Structures are given as structure tokens and as C-alpha cells.
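Incident log, support desk, overnight shift.

02:14 A customer reports that sequence design results differ from what the structure should imply. Their input is reproduced verbatim below. On-call engineer (initials T.W.) acknowledged and began investigating.
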């Protein structure tokens, strides 16, 4: 057997790594299958941004089904199973699903940020057809990058610990071919999506903060709603970034210190890889947690009242006065900043049914 595919870890470490991956695979498949089942039952009523959440669930369950069984079997076997062929397959699947996931997250954040932004984007409604087209482009984009190593630009190879395969980061200094591929991949498929996620979700959090500060009434506990929605934004973006940052850091260390690769203990290279795989478990729990937080009728009623017209909670005479004051010279009623942010984040309340799940993504 090729020494590159022999585990550099002890049999005990391999066994517990296999157990860990088995648990991760189980909860990932269970959680994401629940999201997809729920989405299927109410597909016709899904909002456009929720399609991105469904796409994220597809990538997570796809990774769990196509990759984890092979890595689990290899861990219990104390050696990679299948040699070069399965290594190429594993690297290909990993590239497709990881790029699709991070790009979907970036688009989710960008879409939410745009519809809560400045005119003419403020208050715009995303169409399902538009989002469907964007999702198709995301998959084509990920598929294109995953195929490059198969046609000669870059390459896939085994991880240093011998029980997984990915982009051959250590080949960065070997040739211009490898270095240009890795740098292009890093910039276009890692740094730019990460910067987009950070910028958009922190921007949304700031918009929420300013919008709810402008509301002087405490009747509907606006502060609590603000905290919940902002928390979901932070959880969605930070969960993925936290899971993958250690792996990216170790990969880049390997890239720039390929001659010193032997100095890093195999166990150190294993941990970030295992931690990154846990990202497929987070999103379903975040999705259903937000559903639970926003699914209670009193809270939905408060949000609808607030989003549709925060003056609706005032006495009729005061509400009428506020509406009249809001009219411009042309007779158009202008929505407040808080309403625009709410509509942008959770959808137009007038169009959502009581049974519809509200997902931040």
C-alpha cells in the first residue's frame, strides 16, 4: 500500500476519530433531513431566501452521505481505502460541497443586506426564480473549481495524517501550476466569501441596532426581538467560520512550510479536519432554534404589528395622525427604517402565514 495512505496515527486515535465521525454523520443526516422534509411539506409557501437555507441543508447532507462513510471506514481500517481513485473522489466531493456551502452563506448574507440597504434596494422582494437561478450558478461555480485539479490545474492529495484527501496544499512551491491554483482558490473561494459573510451580517446587526433604537415604545419588547434576530445572524455566519478557520490555518501553514511538514504532529493536523466536519451539524439546529424563537403566535403578532405599521399599537387617533405625517407630497406612505429592516430579514409579514417557518437565511 502507498505509504501516503497509511494512517500516521495510532490505532486508538483512529478508532475514536471514526466514532466521532460516525456521531457527526448521524446528527448531520438527521438534522438536515428534518430541514429538507419540513421544506418539502411546505415547498409552495417557501420564501425566496429560505431556498438558500434549503440549499445549505442539501450541501451538508450531501457531504455527510458522500464523504463521511469513506472516512469512517478508513479510520476503522487504520489506512485509507481505495487509493488514488477514492482520494480523487473524496477531494472532488469535498471541494464541491465546501465551496457551495460557503458561497451559499455569502449569498444569504448579501441578499439580506441588500434588501435592508439604501434605495433603490431597500424593501425589495427577492423572487424565487431569481434565487433559484443564483443557486444554480453557485453549484456551477463550485463544480468548475472542483474539476480544475482533474484537468491539470492544481491537484488533490492525501492529508498529512493519511485518512482524508483534499487540495494538495503542500504542492504550493512545487510549480507555478500549483501555486496559481491555490492562490486563486484561496482568494475567490475562501477570503472573498468570508469577507462577504462578515461584512453583511455585521452590517445587518448594525442596521437592526439603529432601527430598533429609533423605536421609543417598549410595548412589544423590541429589544428582545432585536437580540434574537441578531443572534441568529451571528450564529449562522460564525458557526461556519469557527468550524473551518483552524483547518484553513493549518492548510496555509502546510502550504508555506512544506519543507517542515514532518515537524507538525499528525494528530495536530487531524483535529482541525475533524472540527471542520462538525459544521454540517450546526445549521439545522440554528434553523430550528430560530423557528422556535419566532414561531410563537404572540411574538409573530408583535413582529407583524411592528413591521406592518409600528403605529398600529397606538390609539386609533394617534395611528391616523402618524400615517398622515408619514405621507409625502405625492401621497405615498413611507415606511420607517425599523420596518424596512424587519421586512428585509424575515420577509413581508403581510405575505407570511402563521404556519410558515421564519429563517434568517
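02:41 Re-run completed on a clean worker. Output:
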Amino acid at each position: 500500500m502507498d505509504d501516503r495512505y497509511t494512517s500516521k496515527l495510532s490505532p486508538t486515535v483512529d478508532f475514536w476519530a471514526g466514532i466521532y465521525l460516525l456521531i457527526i454523520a448521524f446528527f448531520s443526516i438527521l438534522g438536515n433531513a428534518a430541514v429538507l422534509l419540513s421544506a418539502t411539506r411546505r415547498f409552495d409557501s417557501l420564501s425566496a431566501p429560505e431556498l438558500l437555507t434549503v440549499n445549505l441543508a442539501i450541501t451538508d447532507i450531501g457531504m455527510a452521505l458522500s464523504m463521511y462513510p469513506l472516512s469512517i471506514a478508513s479510520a476503522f481500517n487504520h489506512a485509507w481505502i481505495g487509493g488514488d481513485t477514492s482520494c480523487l473522489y473524496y477531494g472532488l466531493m469535498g471541494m464541491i460541497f465546501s465551496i457551495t456551502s460557503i458561497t451559499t452563506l455569502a449569498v444569504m448574507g448579501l441578499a439580506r443586506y441588500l434588501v435592508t440597504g439604501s434605495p433603490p434596494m431597500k424593501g425589495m422582494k427577492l423572487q424565487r426564480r431569481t434565487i433559484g437561478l443564483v443557486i444554480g450558478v453557485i453549484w456551477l461555480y463550485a463544480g468548475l473549481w472542483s474539476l480544475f485539479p482533474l484537468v491539470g490545474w492544481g491537484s488533490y492529495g492525501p492529508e498529512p495524517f493519511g485518512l482524508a484527501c483534499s487540495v494538495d496544499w503542500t504542492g504550493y512551491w512545487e510549480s507555478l501550476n500549483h501555486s496559481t491554483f491555490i492562490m486563486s482558490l484561496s482568494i475567490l473561494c475562501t477570503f472573498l466569501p468570508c469577507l462577504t459573510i462578515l461584512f453583511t451580517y455585521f452590517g445587518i446587526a448594525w442596521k437592526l441596532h439603529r432601527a430598533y433604537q429609533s423605536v421609543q415604545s417598549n410595548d412589544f419588547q423590541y429589544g428582545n426581538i432585536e437580540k434574537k434576530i441578531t443572534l441568529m445572524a451571528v450564529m449562522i455566519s460564525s458557526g461556519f467560520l469557527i468550524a473551518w478557520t483552524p483547518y484553513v490555518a493549518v492548510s496555509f501553514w502546510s502550504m508555506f512550510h512544506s519543507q517542515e511538514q514532518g515537524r507538525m504532529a499528525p494528530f495536530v493536523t487531524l483535529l482541525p479536519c475533524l472540527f471542520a466536519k462538525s459544521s454540517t451539524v450546526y445549521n439545522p439546529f440554528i434553523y430550528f432554534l430560530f423557528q422556535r424563537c419566532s414561531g410563537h403566535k404572540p411574538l409573530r403578532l408583535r413582529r407583524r404589528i411592528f413591521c406592518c405599521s409600528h403605529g398600529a399599537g397606538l390609539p386609533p387617533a394617534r395611528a391616523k395622525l402618524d400615517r398622515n405625517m408619514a405621507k409625502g407630497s405625492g401621497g405615498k406612505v413611507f415606511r420607517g427604517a425599523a420596518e424596512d429592516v424587519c421586512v428585509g430579514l424575515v420577509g413581508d409579514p403581510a405575505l407570511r402565514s402563521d404556519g410558515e417557518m421564519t429563517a434568517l437565511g
